[in-house]
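Sample entry (241 residues):
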Amino acid sequence: MEHLDEAVSADQSGYTSGGHQGNNMARILGLGTLLIAVCLVGSDARGQYRQSWHRVPTIVVVSADADPRVEFVEKAVAFWNKTLTETGSAFRLGRITHVVQSPPEEDLQTLSQSVLSQTAGTATRPESLRNLSGDITIFLAQSKFISFTSPFDENSRRVIGIRGTQFPPLNQPNVALNVIAHELGHAIGLRHNSDPSMLMCGRPAPCRPDLFISETPRFFPLTDDEKQRLRVMYPPDWKPE
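Predicted structure, serialized as tokens:
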């Protein structure tokens, strides 16, 4: 979910996230304050963040037609790939596919709550959010919930849910862009930090997505420690299995 009070990644502003990874593959196509992605607060949840990808993850974006946040996803993926290049990592996020389809709003709300409560296992995931075609499926929702990143499912796939932009602070300039980037940070293995000037700030620190407000579009930076973690998780000799 988003990691500020929204986003474990979930909180009342919109953040959430979690993780568990395997090596199987599945098919089909089928979630933030309460806003940005939420990172799990417990020790188990924090451990989930550190799990890395063993393949180049494909990204599927599900949204209504002409949703302006699709462009934000493209920019956020470019931001992360540029950052990975600058750290010397060989890992990259993969291709993006956009599917015009109404997100399953109620199921995203349910999964957001599940991630927040640290019970987001495969058994609790709504059917509409299982066996998705993307390794990372990003739902650009229209409803109000805490943005989140789910744990890996049994097929080593993750779901990201982004709260509707009509709800503050996602309706403020630069917020949705950074909430999406924040959640992608969880999806590749980073957890929250406590520095409100940084992209991955979130619970239990008192960070909130409204800190991303800026009249000038920009991505908030990573800490030096986070860049080092990326190098460790995805070294220069990283190769897909």
